[in-house]
Amino acid sequence: MKYLLDTDHLSILQRQSGPEYAMLMTRIAQHSPADLASSIISFHEQVLGCHTYISRAHSSSDVVRGYGMFVRVLQDFAVAPVIPFDAAAAAVFDGLVAQRVRVATMDLRIASIALSRGMVLVTRNVSDFGKVPGLQIEDWTV
After folding, report:
1. Which sign does the torsion angle of CA 123, 10, 110, 3 carry?
2. In the prediction, which pLDDT does 28 show?
3. What is the pLDDT of residue 129?
4. Residues 119-130 pLDDT 10s
5. Domains in the chain, CATH or no CATH each
6. Is 18 left (phi over 0), alpha (psi -120 to 50) or beta?
7. DSSP label at residue 33
8. Fewest CB atoms within 10 Å of the CB: 53, 65, 78, 110?
9. Parallel, antiparallel or unpaired: strands 3-5 and 120-122
């Protein structure tokens, strides 16, 4: 695996519409599926989003929609490799924290996974991930 898809790119894939989706699909088509993966952190972020939506639901139809979103997330993550946050990623994370890299915790965990495995992070969030020393990033929506 060479590329780690950030949560923002996964969300675009799930929406399946718009010019960013078209650009992203064009770029994905240029690579073998074996070169692409997502992280357990992105899964965690999306599960938290579904949980929040369900918790704030005001009607039964909102609850049904929320659980439908949850099923979609589960199905999407079941079809491609999910990279764990393992001891190597934790060591990188601890090093970045010690360097006082100012990036949100979940993003820093995603960056740590990419760095620990020598992967390129595919994201639109260049402003935050660009602060992480040594992290290679690409935006496939432009």
Report:
1. negative
2. 95
3. 97
4. 999 999 999 999
5. 3-138 (3.40.50.1010)
6. left
7. G
8. 78
9. parallel
Q: Where are the beta strands (DSSP E) in 3-110?
A: 3-5, 36-39, 82-83
The structure's pTM equals 0.92
Count CB atoms within 10 A of the CB of residue 51.
Answer: 12
Structure tokens at 11: 């969300």
- C-alpha 49/C-alpha 70 separation (Å) is 9
Phi and psi angles of residue 17, each rounded to the nearest 5 degrees, phi first = -155, 160
- Answer whether 125's CB lies under 8 Å from 10's CB: no
| pLDDT (tens digit per residue) in 36-84 | 999 999 999 999 999 999 999 999 999 999 999 999 999 989 988 999 9
Tell me the two tokens of residue 114.
Answer: 């990419």
